[in-house]
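User: Design a sequence. Structure:
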């Protein structure tokens, strides 16, 4: 299994923890590609944290910045189970993440390959390399299962 897939497995574990907490199951990992060291892991927590910005990517990047003592995360890789939204894409750009790897595409809320395609805009001052589709089926299945259960619970 390649390094991206191994790291995505860690992100999927974080996503599962988010689901168990009643949050949308999205997980993220900040990793140093040179050493393979996991710097930080984040899971969605806007409901529990009472914070609309507490997406998995933001949680992981905040933890990485604190650990490293620098708000710039230049050269690091962010691995996330779902295509980042516009807010997270903006934060990724500001942090100067070197590479973004995501699992499932998000046609409704994604902002990297869908929607505004944030990193392609002239006003985007930092563009990471982007790779999508890593363990996409597993990421997508977790999200579909979560929302199916939520709909069933709401109807029942």
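Assistant: Done.
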């Amino acid at each position: 299994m390649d390094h991206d897939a191994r790291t995505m497995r860690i992100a999927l574990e974080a996503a599962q923890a988010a689901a168990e907490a009643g949050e949308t199951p999205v997980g993220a990992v900040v990793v140093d590609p040179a050493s393979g060291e996991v710097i930080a892991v984040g899971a969605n927590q806007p409901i529990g944290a009472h914070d609309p910005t507490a997406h998995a990517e933001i949680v992981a990047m905040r933890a990485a910045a604190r650990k490293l003592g620098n708000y710039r995360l230049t050269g690091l890789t962010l691995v996330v189970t779902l295509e980042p939204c516009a807010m997270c894409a903006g934060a990724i750009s500001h942090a100067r993440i070197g590479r973004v790897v995501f699992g499932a595409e998000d046609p409704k809320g994604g902002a990297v390959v869908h929607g505004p395609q944030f990193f392609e805009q002239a006003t985007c001052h930092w563009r990471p390399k982007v790779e999508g589709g890593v363990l996409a089926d597993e990421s997508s299945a977790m999200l579909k299962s979560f929302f199916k259960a939520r709909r069933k619970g709401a109807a029942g």
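Residues 116 and 122 are 12 Å apart (CA to CA). Strands lie at 27-31, 38-43, 77-82, 99-104, 129-132.
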